[in-house]
Amino acid sequence: MTKYCDYLKEVGVNGDLFEVLCACKNSVKEISALVKLGKIGKAGTENVFGEEQLELDVESDEIIQKYMKECEQVGLIASEELPDEIKVGDGEYGVCYDPLDGSSLVDVNLAVGTIFGVYKTGSFVGVKGSEQVASVIAVYGPRTTLLLTTGNGVKEFILNAENKFEMNDKEITVGEGKMFAPGNLRASAKRKDYMDLVHYWCDNQYTLRYSGGMVPDVNQILLKGKGIFSYPGYEDAPNGKLRLLFECAPMAFLMEQAGGAASDGRMRILEKEVVSLDQRTPIYLGSKGEVRRCEEYLEK
Ligand code: P6P
To answer: What is the residue-averaged pLDDT of the chain?
Structure first.
């Protein structure tokens, strides 16, 4: 079985980027153990979005910060849990991350994840998702897995009994199929266009697969090779809830590398410029046909 580091070398990822992606991988191993055994209480603090932080949010962020600061190839980090980007060294790589997306699902024992976007940049403000050189998501479920792209397609790695990530040889591509993950369903009460789209999926007997955790929900679409994840905005939150830099751009890179698509309803997620770290965006992510359907129904 091919190990994570061996795969990176096989696809020509070596030197500085290799070290950065090993730092991401090593932080995931520690967070995996934390999720299984860590405390699930409240931290008594809020993140920059005004969301109450759990101890797991803070501790998983601290784990990633530790590995990024130890990696001399990383010069800049930005975390969904921190107010600003932080210069951590002279490295040429910037790593933005959501340390534990969906952390509130841990106390009901549902899967959660970590999201990394890797850029060669001196600031995240002004970048576009298309400038990412790598994207990694980790899923903490019955197993701990990684999905990685460096622009050479998408590969899954599974944490084994020896605490090593082994590659799954399965080809990861996304085509058409009847599976939907309709986020922000409450918006359909105020948006007839979203209600009409949900009715289309229901009338055509699509299989509902929505957990409330973006990482496992999108991971499922990638591994099942079909489906659509939607999270529109509505009057209370015109751009929705999901963050362009920390969630949507890394997911969009993975989805496009698997042959799918990612749109805000009008344009590619990867073409959207990051104007602020806390920028939100509607997102429609999945097979090309389903993303096109969302664009036709929703963002006229
Ligand atoms: P809602 C988790 O809090 C998250 O950021 C994503 O992982 C998930 O897709 C979304 O929010 C869920 O939002 O509105 O369904 O609670």
So the answer is: 96
Query: Residues 112-126: pLDDT tens digits?
Result: 999 999 999 999 999
Q: Which of the four pLDDT bands, split at 50, 70 and 90, describes residue 299?
A: low
How many folded domains does the chain comprise? 2
Is there a domain that residue 239 lies in?
yes
Amino acid at position 122, single letter:
G
Position 174 in a domain: no
- Per residue in 187-234, pLDDT (tens digit) is 999 999 999 999 999 999 999 999 999 999 999 999 999 999 999 998
pLDDT at 54 over 90: no
Residue 32 belongs to domain spanning: 4-168
Q: Give the 3-state secondary structure of 110-153.
A: CCEEEEEEEEECCCCCCCEHHHCCEEEEEEECCCEEEEEECCCC
Please tell me if the CB atom of residue 269 comes closer than 6 angstroms to any atom of ligand 1. Answer: no
Minimum CA distance residue for ligand 1 atom 16: 212
Q: Is 228 in the pocket of ligand 1 (CB under 6 A)?
A: no
My answer on whether 19 and 151 are in the same domain is yes
Partners of 261 in the β-ladder:
286
Distance 242 CA to ligand 1 centre (A): 7
Helix axes 249-257, 214-224, angle to 10 degrees: 10
Residue nearest to atom 9 of ligand 1 (CA): 214
105 CA to middle of ligand 1, Å? 10
> At 98, which CATH number?
3.30.540.10
Which of 54, 264, 26, 60 is CA-nearest to residue 157? Answer: 26
Percent residues over pLDDT 70 in the chain? 99
Same domain, 26 and 112: yes
Q: Are 16 and 139 found together in one domain?
A: yes
Domain at 185, CATH number: 3.40.190.80
